[in-house]
């Protein structure tokens, strides 16, 4: 947990020290400790690391850039050639009509998200986040100085759009939408996204659309929010979109993503943040990105591998009553282990100790920080509904996933 602020928090107590660290680090540490202690490998179902590898032509693009000496700085927004290729990809694959000067290459979409939040934050402004969310979104909101406000999900973990307006107010500046979602696996349909965008227009919110899992939809299809405002003049657009090379091309360690800003004003704000934060994204990695954009067959193959793993492993969890339905997209399934009588942390610890299978308790995906009027986190609670949820990653090796799920179901049924 984060260090809590002293009663009279002073300048010596940096606000960032009060922000909760990602819960995933606790699981990583526990899994590492067990491996060291027993010498046995842990079945790592807590982590979104794929079993497939970066396509060889992408690795070649990376190494060739290095051996050719293409290792100098580019501009803060990235190489023009890559941004042009991304603009073409956005048009053909995402229906997103934009220009290269609104596209920013970033060292992972994570950094792009953090930078874009920083570029739009204003003192005291509120950011709407899903009540169960990727923990990094919460950290980024707090670091940028936003006050997080959480919006409700339906029982099936989709966004409860009709109740969005209930949690917003005059200080709401933006809403984060993540489809397909980490950790819920929910995929928003076009009609829902249209309704959400209409609300954003009505209340004058920016929309931040995190599409890191755009290529991993198994039911329905991925709709990019920005495609729904493609016919508006840029100065009336409000959607920021973020995309990642990590998932589609198995490039997690390369750190490559991109942000698309709605118009020139928002682009110039983000440019300043990027100049000050990164100077420029890594040049050889940008060449790898150029090669990746042609690797369409690899993307299809990767999606089918995760789908096959989902279809083979997860029905066991549905039969065991731990999962209502297969996730429609993404790399994760969110299980409810409440019927075992254990909370998520106890379940995850017990499962690891008894079976060498690591899963992520979802308490940390639903934290509720209390923020004082200076913007400091003074206390961190969690959403009661998440106390029985655990996240299982489905992107890893299919046999290991099936073995891990079998062990999990046995463990749950013995309780
Ligand atoms: C929802 C979501 N957004 C963004 C990211 C960041 O991806 P990257 O920084 O590797 O592009 C992740 C990574 O797990 C994620 O789950």
Automatic annotation (TrEMBL):
PROSITE patterns: AA_TRANSFER_CLASS_1
Keywords: Aminotransferase, Pyridoxal phosphate, Transferase
Top-level taxonomic group: Bacteria
A Pfam short name: Aminotran_1_2
Cofactor(s) of this protein: pyridoxal 5'-phosphate
Entry's Gene Ontology molecular function annotations: transaminase activity
Enzyme nomenclature, EC number: 2.6.1.-
InterPro entries xrefs: Aminotransferase_I/II_large, AspAT/PAT-like, NHTrfase_class1_PyrdxlP-BS, PyrdxlP-dep_Trfase, PyrdxlP-dep_Trfase_major
Residue ranges annotated for the Aminotransferase class I/classII large domain, each copy included: 44-382
Entry similarity comment: Belongs to the class-I pyridoxal-phosphate-dependent aminotransferase family.
Protein name: Aminotransferase
Gene source species: Streptomyces coffeae
């Amino acid at each position: 947990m984060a260090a809590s602020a002293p009663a009279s928090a002073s300048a010596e107590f940096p606000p960032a020290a009060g922000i909760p660290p990602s819960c995933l680090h606790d699981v990583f540490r526990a899994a590492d400790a067990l491996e060291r202690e027993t010498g046995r490998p842990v079945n790592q179902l807590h982590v979104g690391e794929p079993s497939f590898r970066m396509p060889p032509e992408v690795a070649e693009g990376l190494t060739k850039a290095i051996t050719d000496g293409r290792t100098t700085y580019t501009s803060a927004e990235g190489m023009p050639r890559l941004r042009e290729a991304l603009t073409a990809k956005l048009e053909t694959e995402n229906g997103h009509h934009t220009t290269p000067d609104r596209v920013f290459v970033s060292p992972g979409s994570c950094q792009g998200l953090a930078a874009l939040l920083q570029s739009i934050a204003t003192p005291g402004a509120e950011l709407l986040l899903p009540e169960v969310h990727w923990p990094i979104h919460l950290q980024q909101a707090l670091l940028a100085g936003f006050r997080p406000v959480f919006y409700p999900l339906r029982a099936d973990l989709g966004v409860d759009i009709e109740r969005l307006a209930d949690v917003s107010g005059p200080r709401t500046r933006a809403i984060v939408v993540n489809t397909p979602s980490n950790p819920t696996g929910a995929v928003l349909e076009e009609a829902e996204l249209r309704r959400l965008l209409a609300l954003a227009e009505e209340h004058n919110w920016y929309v931040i659309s995190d599409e890191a899992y755009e290529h991993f939809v198994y039911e329905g299809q991925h709709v990019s929010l920005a495609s729904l405002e493609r016919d508006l003049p840029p100065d009336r657009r409000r959607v920021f979109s973020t995309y990642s090379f990590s998932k589609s091309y198995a490039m997690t360690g390369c750190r490559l993503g991109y942000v698309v800003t709605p118009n020139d004003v928002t682009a110039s704000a983000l440019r300043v943040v990027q100049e000050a934060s990164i100077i420029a994204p890594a040049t050889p990695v940008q060449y790898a990105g150029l090669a990746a954009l042609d690797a369409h067959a690899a993307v299809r193959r990767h999606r089918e591998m995760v789908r096959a793993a989902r279809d083979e492993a997860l029905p066991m969890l549905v039969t065991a009553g731990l999962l209502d339905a297969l996730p429609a997209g993404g790399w994760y399934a969110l299980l409810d282990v409440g019927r075992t009588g254990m909370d998520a942390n106890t379940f995850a610890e017990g499962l690891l100790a008894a079976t060498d299978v690591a899963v992520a308790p979802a308490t940390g995906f639903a934290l509720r920080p209390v923020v004082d009027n200076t913007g400091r986190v003074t206390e961190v609670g969690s959403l009661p509904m998440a106390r029985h949820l655990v996240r299982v990653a489905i992107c890893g090796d299919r046999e290991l996933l099936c073995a891990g799920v079998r062990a999990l179901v046995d463990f749950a049924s013995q309780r």
